[in-house]
């Protein structure tokens, strides 16, 4: 334990401000770096360096060195710059604003020297004394961030706290579950499948009405002429055509539905949903035996059969 405390103390001591050497790296001619903040977020896309601007759009954007105001962080805020990289790497709206931008290549750099600070291997550059100094500062900033996070985590007064400061209000859609009941939908599906099974018979019956029954009426009118009870004939013909219309409508619906759905695909899909199965199998046999005795004390001596 004492060794760990000593290591942490050495790391924090390394994070203290380091006197600036006489050979201060020259400021980049492309970036107007402020005197108190030299850390920026950069990424190379298609051979061109782009820099993060928090004032371009709602989510920020990567811009060229002359395109606008670039966001800089002070050395004391280095952890915030790293946290910003993490947030930007999962922000799809931000990433889509620059085609070819790779989230894994977003890098915190020292804008005065151009050296990568975090992650240091993104720009594939050799380690320099300035970069080694940045590594010490980066590790110290990460340690401070982790210490704060774990300090809160191990604090009993702060554990399991629930905050209601980031939620949002919304109006969930309303569904009439009495009208659109799952059982009713399934019954309707079964009814539809049963109706589709009648499709061959329906189409055959329609053919009988068109090719046989109608011909009988037409030939009767042609051959008998005026020796027929016109009122009775018309009433019978009307009744026949009404019946044919019902068969025709049913035929159109069944043909259209059957040609555009796959019954086997639907039924196999329903069989594949585990949540529609009424039986649950315990994953752990020993725990299952204990739980069964809790569900029904009379099952205390019941053993779950072993697999062969």
Structure description:
The chain is α+β, with helices and mostly antiparallel strands and about 300 residues long. The protein has three domains: about 25-150, no CATH class; about 180-270; about 280-308, no CATH class. Helices cover about 50% and strands about 5% of the residues. The chain has nine helices and five strands; from the N terminus they run αβββααββαααααα. It has a five-stranded antiparallel β-sheet. Strand 4 (about 105-110) and strand 5 (about 115-120) form a beta hairpin. Helix 1 packs across helix 4. The longest helix has about 30 residues, at about 230-260. The radius of gyration is 39 Å and the shape is elongated. The two termini are about 50 Å apart. Mean pLDDT is about 80; it is low at about 1-30.
Briefly, what is this?
The protein contains 9 helices and 5 strands; from the N terminus they run H-E-E-E-H-H-E-E-H-H-H-H-H-H. By secondary structure, the protein is an alpha+beta fold.
Notable traits:
308 residues; alpha+beta; 3 domains; 5-stranded antiparallel β-sheet; elongated; disordered N terminus
Q: Report the biggest beta sheet as strand number plus sense, adding barrel if it closes.
A: 5 strands, antiparallel
Radius of gyration, taken over Cα atoms and rounded to an integer in Å: 39 Å
- Widest β-sheet, arrangement of strands: 3-2-1-4-5
Structural class: alpha+beta
Mean pLDDT across all amino acids: 78
Classify the helix fraction into a percent range.
40-55%
The geometry reads as elongated
Which runs of at least 5 residues are low in confidence (pLDDT < 50)? 1-29
Write down the secondary-structure element order.
HEEEHHEEHHHHHH
State the end-to-end CA separation: 51 Å
Number of domains: 3
What is the beta-strand fraction? Answer: 5-15%
- Extended strand count: 5
Helix run count: 9
